[in-house]
Amino acid sequence: MPFHVMIIPTLGCPANCSYCWSSEKKSSIMSIETITEVVKWLKSLRGDSVTFTFHGGEPLLAGADFYMEALPILFKGLSPRKIAFAIQTNLWKLTPEIAKIFAEYNIPIGSSLDGPKELNDFQRGKGYYTKTMMGYEIARNQGLNVRFITTFTSHSVKFKEEIFNFYLEQGFTLKLHPCLPSLKGENPKKWTIDPGEYGELLIYLLDKYLENMGKIEVMNIDHLCKCVFTGRGTVCTYVDCMGDTFAVGSEGNIYPCYRFVGMDEWIMGNVYDHPTMEDLSQSNAWKCLNKFKEYVDKECGKCAHIKYCRGGCPYNAIVPTGGEIRGIDPYCTAYKMIFDEITKRFNEEMFGSCEMDVFLPQTMNSSRPGIMSLMRKKI
Predict the structure, then answer these.
(1) Residue-wise burial string across 185-223, b where 16 or more C-beta atoms lie within 10 A, e elsewhere
(2) pTM score, whole prediction
(3) In Å, how far are 189, 232, 267, 330 from 181, measured between CA atoms?
(4) Burial group, residue 98, by CB count within 10 angstroms (0-12, 13-18, 19+)
(5) What is the per-residue pLDDT across 306-323, written as a single tens digit (0 to 9) for each?
(6) Which residue among 39, 67, 196, 372 is buried most deeply as judged by most CB within 10 Å?
(7) Is beta strand 253-255 parallel, antiparallel or unpaired with respect to 245-248?
(8) 266 has which bridge partners?
(9) In 3D, which of 246, 232, 217 has the Cα closest to residue 52?
(10) What share of the chain is helix, strand, coil (3-state, %, to 5)?
(11) CA angle 109, 204, 136 (to 5 degrees)
């Protein structure tokens, strides 16, 4: 897995999404000194290429001056290794000045829309859609690439057709994730989508994607197909991420992932101390998540999808048990449903029958849309 460091300048956010668990109203904002310490820490930690993703909360609350200083410090400070940047933002605070800075570093933007305006604002708050689309226009005027993530909830999944058609008509790339429970509180619980329903949603989107090839991209389906085709996970949910992904909070604390930021029990170290990989591996957080890897090896060893699923996300797995390793990702049901469906269609398309073994040569014969076009697609 490529090396990935998530920088969380603040957990503050001006939005008030109904199911959000990742924002804190009184969160501090990261200093430039902390960015400088990130560089010093990474210089001693490992020397390969790194992608920095600014996340939150709302990372644009850090302001234009922060990014004018932080980006060159990270880029030049870690030269000559290859450095890439990305940001996840609701775009409300994007200004032409900030957009110009991002354009200089060719920073792709991830934002969030849950579908058409009425549905989006029902889940994310009145006025959200309009503010985000204003920021979108500023980003596009600077030539920035913006893609939206849609959170499917127990409510919005009932409108999956309307959401898909919205993305199709707007010409947007569709990326989705299910509304998930959190260690931080009960707030998202009533919005959480059932694993079986999520599996059905993924299969539905596979069908709609194949019906509309060339008109839309559905990133999750691309990655799921690539998992099956290559035999390895292609996004963090489906890989052993420990040691390759870290998150740094506003005070310099290091966590296994942005989803743990702000929880003291999941701190692995602090960038000001320049911890080594050995230091980090001695933290309780590392040891706990490493147990998940061992648990998956034992409990999922006979699963056909283990190489490219790896038991799903460890964070999802520990939420139901309050932080203990006593099961795999509860969305395993959904992952099996979509991986089984992709595998079945691959076998039917390539070998004529889902009963045929994938390694036995048969005559190609399939009446279904061609899933191989997705498996071979460059992503």
Answers:
(1) eeebeebbbbbebbbbbbbebbebbbebeeebbbebbbb
(2) 0.92
(3) 6, 26, 20, 10
(4) buried
(5) 999 999 999 999 999 989
(6) 67
(7) antiparallel
(8) none
(9) 246
(10) 45, 10, 40
(11) 20
